[in-house]
Design a protein that fits this description.
This protein is α/β, with parallel strands linked by helices and 248 residues long. The protein is built from eight helices and ten strands. β4 and β5 form a beta hairpin.
């Protein structure tokens, strides 16, 4: 209790209209009991102004009765205008699948890479950008690329262009260009689920070629497209921004 009072007084002195403060607390699902108590103490104090507290936690690790949820509920009861919850899209699974796919089936073994004159270590590139109100993430590797010949063998898309073929086939469940399927990933398997997930959230996923074909393989990148505000909610007009607690 003494620490909470002292820390609260310190924040009151430090947080000023011309110099508001932001306090960010990450991984609150692992917080010790004193942290939720501190949050309640700070955000229940109406004299503490010009402070924004942002807390993040993994909702799949926080169950009913968790101390954090109890604390958020208590703050909401005492000062409902001070709490704003934001749910973020679970893009981690999408990115993990893309990385595993590159490592397992995209990047060649060391001996094969050296025989081709490539660096022994493979490279996975991730580029993010924004255009208007859209966010784009591009994921690629310097492996062999997509085996178009195998893809045509496994589909009936004989007249489609190479890029149309890649997008149609890779978004069909169960179609893969990998010779074998491992426990890590399958080349082409899973993009149908990725695309379905992205479209449900106002985005999309597609395959884009990045170079010319070589020995039946063409380099490509996985392009993830999302609206800028995907997975967020707009703040309530009545909510004082300086005293909000965002959790997601």
């Amino acid at each position: 209790m003494r620490f909470q009072r002292v820390f609260g007084e310190f924040l009151k002195a430090a947080a000023q209209p011309a110099h508001p403060l932001v306090l960010f607390l990450d991984d609150l699902q692992w917080a010790d009991p004193s942290t939720p108590e501190l949050l309640v103490s700070l955000l229940s104090d109406e004299d503490l102004k010009h402070l924004l507290v942002i807390g993040s936690y993994r909702d799949n690790e926080v169950r009913e009765g968790h101390l954090l949820l109890t604390a958020i509920g208590q703050i909401r009861e005492e000062r409902p205008e001070a709490v704003l919850e934001i749910s973020l899209l679970p893009l981690t699974d999408v990115l993990v699948h893309a990385f595993r796919n590159s490592m397992d089936h995209g990047i060649e073994p060391r001996a094969e890479r050296e025989a081709l004159g490539k660096a022994p270590q493979g490279r996975i590139a991730v580029h993010g950008g924004r255009a208007g109100n859209r966010i784009t993430v591009r994921i690629s590797d310097d492996g062999a690329g997509l085996r178009l010949d195998r893809l045509r063998e496994k589909t009936s898309e004989r007249d489609a262009s190479d890029e149309d073929l890649a997008n149609r086939a890779s978004s069909s469940r169960g179609i893969s260009t990998a010779a074998t399927q491992s426990q890590v990933s399958g080349r082409g398997v899973g993009l149908d689920a990725v695309r379905t997930f992205m479209r449900k959230n106002g985005g999309d996923a597609r395959v884009a070629f990045t170079g010319a074909a070589r020995e039946g393989c063409v380099p490509f990148e996985l392009v993830l497209d999302l609206p800028e505000d995907a997975g967020t909610v707009e703040p309530r007009p009545s909510m004082p921004p300086a005293q909000a607690f965002a959790a997601g």
